[in-house]
Amino acid sequence: MWPPFESGLVCYLKRMTPSIDELAQFACCLANASGDAIRPWFRTALNVDNKDHDRDSFDPVTEADKLAELTLRRLIHATYPRHGIVGEEHGQRVGDEPFTWVIDPIDGTRSFICGMLHWGTLIALNDGTRPILGILDQPITRERWIGRPGQATFAAAGAMEQTIRTRACPNLDAAVLTTTHPADHFTKAEADAFQSIAGRVRMTRYGGDCYAYGLLAMGLVDLVVESGLKAWDVQAIIPIVEGAGGLMTSWTGGDAQNGGRVVAAGDPQLHALALEVLCTVK
Question: Which residues of 202-225 are buried (b: 16+ CB within 10 A; e: fewer)?
């Protein structure tokens, strides 16, 4: 079971820089609170708004997205009032310290509004340079991935956390590849590059959103290729993938923390093979 949360405010008063264990404990508290806010809305008749006001595309948001993010923001501000916050629905609050929480309570809103399970809550802590702590939480199945420097763990409800690792898969012909959608989130050039890789792998699956990265960290998926992502889509994922032994970069091999074109691989050799194709895309 996940340990009960002991007030982060007490820890904050004891020392100006909380330990990674204290911060992880607080992040688990956030995930618990977010799940409590989201679960009553799942598979109900939701009002769905389109954030693309020009109606050129469909970028959905629901009451559950907004309420859960407000819940997280209030808890963060109450416990670590000097930390910054970046969220998909309610923007950025600049803090007085380098730490910034990067949150997306429902990553995979399309799956959520369809009653599917491939979505999750993303909670990251950035130390001012890069994300050092990440949680991927699935509130319905009550599964939780936690990433920190050098370690990634997984737990289902009622079970102890277990350390997870990516699997060895140095070649494309043995790899399982996934992306959220093979066309909607890619330009024509990006889609062509993705299909070039897809034609060489053992199996391709679609629709995973953030959940696919958790499966990669567990050694069940080998390669995730996506584009058009935002910081709140990736910052919680990076510590999980890297903590499990994988790599997550831009398509040119650079820093992925601001989103955009992202590739994650469980095996460094597989990552290099994917980059050979993806880095050529203009």
Answer: eebeebbbbbbbbbbbbbebbbbb
Q: How many residues does the chain have?
A: 282
Q: What are phi and psi of 81, to 5 degrees?
A: -65, -15
Please name the amino acid found at residue 56: D
Whether the CB-CB separation of 64 and 93 falls below 8 Å is answered with no
Phi, psi of 137 (to 5 degrees): -125, 130
How far is Cα 145 from Cα 246, in angstroms, rounded to an integer? Answer: 14
Read off the pTM.
0.90
Distance, C-alpha 139 to centroid of its chain: 14
Q: Is 39 exposed, middle or buried (0-12, 13-18, 19+ CB in 10 A)?
A: middle
Report how far residue 100's alpha carbon sits from residue 77's, in angstroms, rounded to the nearest whole number. 11
Question: What tens digit of pLDDT does each residue of 35-75 get?
Answer: 999 999 999 988 888 866 665 666 678 899 999 999 999 99
- CA 255, CA 265: separation in Å to the nearest integer? 14
- Interval 243-273: pLDDT, tens: 999 999 999 999 999 999 999 999 999 999 9
